[in-house]
Amino acid sequence: MTDITELTKQIMGRLAGYEERFAGLFAAYFDRLGETLETPAFSRFAPECVDLVRDLSLRGGKRLRVALLYEAARLVTTGTPAGLDDAALSVELLQTHGLIHDDIIDNSPTRRSGPSTYYAYRARHPEHPQAALGLAILAGDLAAFLSLRVLIDSPAPLPVRHAMLEVQTGAATTTFLGQIADLERDFTPVPDEETLHTVADFKSARYSILAPLQLGLIAAGEDPRRHEDTLRRYARLVGISQQMRDDYLDLFGDAAVMGKSTGGDLREGRRSYAVSAVLAAADDAERALVESALGDPACTEETVATVREIGDRHGVRDTLRAAMRRHAELASAEAAGWRPRWREEAVTLFQYLPLWGLERAL
Questions:
Q1: Phi-psi bin for 136: left (phi > 0), alpha (psi -120 to 50), beta?
Q2: From 103's CA, which of 9, 57, 254, 344 has a CA 20 to 30 Å away?
Q3: Residue 319: inside a domain, yes or no?
C-alpha cells in the first residue's frame, strides 16, 4: 500500500467518523428542540414545520461542511473545544435554510432523495397553494434563525459565541446576496468568467467553506482574522472548482453513474459554467439552438445530447476540466502554505481535499 493510499484511507476514515458522529448530534438536537421550543398550544402547523425542517436536515449527505469545521479546529488542537458541536449544528441548520429556499426558487419537487419542503407543503395543502408557499418560506426562515439561536445558547465563552455569531450572520448575509446575484446572472446572455466566479464565491464558497474554517478556528482559540487573506483565497478557489465540477457534471456527466438525468441547468434556464462556455464557443446557429433549450422544462434528452455535442465540437469539455483542475491545484498550494503555522495532519487534509473533489468529474 502506497503512502498516498494510506493517507487517503486515514483521512476518509476521519471524514466518515465526523458524518456518523454528527448524525447522532443532529438527531439529539431536534429531540431537544421538540421538547423545549414554545409554540402556540392550538397550532398544528408549527410542530409540523419543525418536523419538516428536521426531516430535511437529517436527510443530509456526507456533511462536508461539518468535516471542514472540525478539521479547522484540528489545525490548532486535538481536542473538541466548547462550542464546536454547536457551530456544526449552526452550519447545517443554515444549510437547511438554503436548501428549502433554493427549492422554492427553482420549483424543485425533490431534495436528498425525498420531497422538497415546498412540495411537501403543496401535497399537504393542495387547495391552498399560496399558503403552501408561505409555509415553506417560513420553514426556511425558522431554520436560519435556529442556526443563530444554537450559537446564542452554546456553553462556549461569551467572546467565542460573539465571534461565531458574527461569522454566521456575515455568511448568511453574503449567501442571500449571492443568491440574488445568481438569479441576476441568468438575465445576462453570456456571463463572463469573473461574474461566474463571483456568484460561486458569494453564493456557496463563503458559507460552505470559509465560514466552517473560521468557526473551527474560533472554537479552537485562534483568531481567523489574522489569516483572513489566505482563508478567503482558499475558500474562493475551492468553491469555484467545486461549482465548475457540479456544472460540468450536469451537462457532461454520466447519468448512469450520477443516478440522475443530465441537463437540469438547461431546463431551468441556468447560465452555469458549462452552459455559458457552450454559448460562448458556439456559432450563431448553434447558439440559437442552445438558447431555445434554455428554460424549457420539456427539453428532451436528445436536445441535451445535441448541446453536449456542440460543446464537444468546440472543446468545452476539456476546457472546463482544465479550469477546474487549475483552481483545485491553486487551492491545494494555498493550503500547503499553512504548514509553518498549523498542525501537519489537518493541513494535509485541506491540501488534498480540492483534488479529491475532482474525482467524480476527471
A1: alpha
A2: 254
A3: no
| Residue 20 belongs to a domain | yes
Q: How many helices and strands, by DSSP H and E, does the chain display?
A: 17, 2
pLDDT (tens digit per residue) in 60-119:
878 999 999 999 999 999 888 999 999 999 999 999 999 999 999 988 898 988 999 999
Give the structural domain span for 77: 1-157
b/e sequence 90-127, b meaning 16+ C-beta within 10 Å = bbbbbbbbbbbbbbbeeebeebeeebbbbbbbbeebee
- Dist CA 170 CA 177 (whole Å): 11
CA distance 79 to 91: 20
**How far is CA 244 from its chain centroid?**
13
Q: Report CA dihedral (174, 176, 179, 181) to the nearest 10 degrees.
A: -60
Are 50 and 34 in contact, with CB atoms under 8 Å apart?
Answer: yes
Domain CATH code at residue 33:
1.10.600.10
Domain count of the fold of the chain = 1
Mean pLDDT of the chain: 93
Is 61 among the domain residues? yes
**Cβ partners under 8 Å of residue 245, min gap 6:** 324, 357, 358, 360, 361
Q: Are 106 and 247 in contact (CB under 8 A)?
A: no
Q: Return left, alpha or beta for 295; rule: phi > 0 is left, psi -120 to 50 is alpha, else beta.
A: left
Look up cell 398544528; give the residue.
Answer: 44
Place of cell 431555445: 292
Q: Is 332 exposed, middle or buried (0-12, 13-18, 19+ CB in 10 A)?
A: buried
In a domain? residue 114: yes
How far from each other are the two terminal CA atoms of the chain, in whole angstroms?
23
HSE (side-chain half, CA atoms, 13 Å) at 277: 24
| Chain segment 142-184, per-residue pLDDT in tens | 999 999 999 999 999 999 999 999 999 999 999 999 999 999 9
Q: Amino acid identity of 23?
A: A
Sign of CA dihedral 242, 243, 244, 246: positive
Q: What is the DSSP track for 317-362? A: HHHHHHHHHHHHHHHHHHHHTTTTTS-HHHHHHHHHHHHHTTTTT-
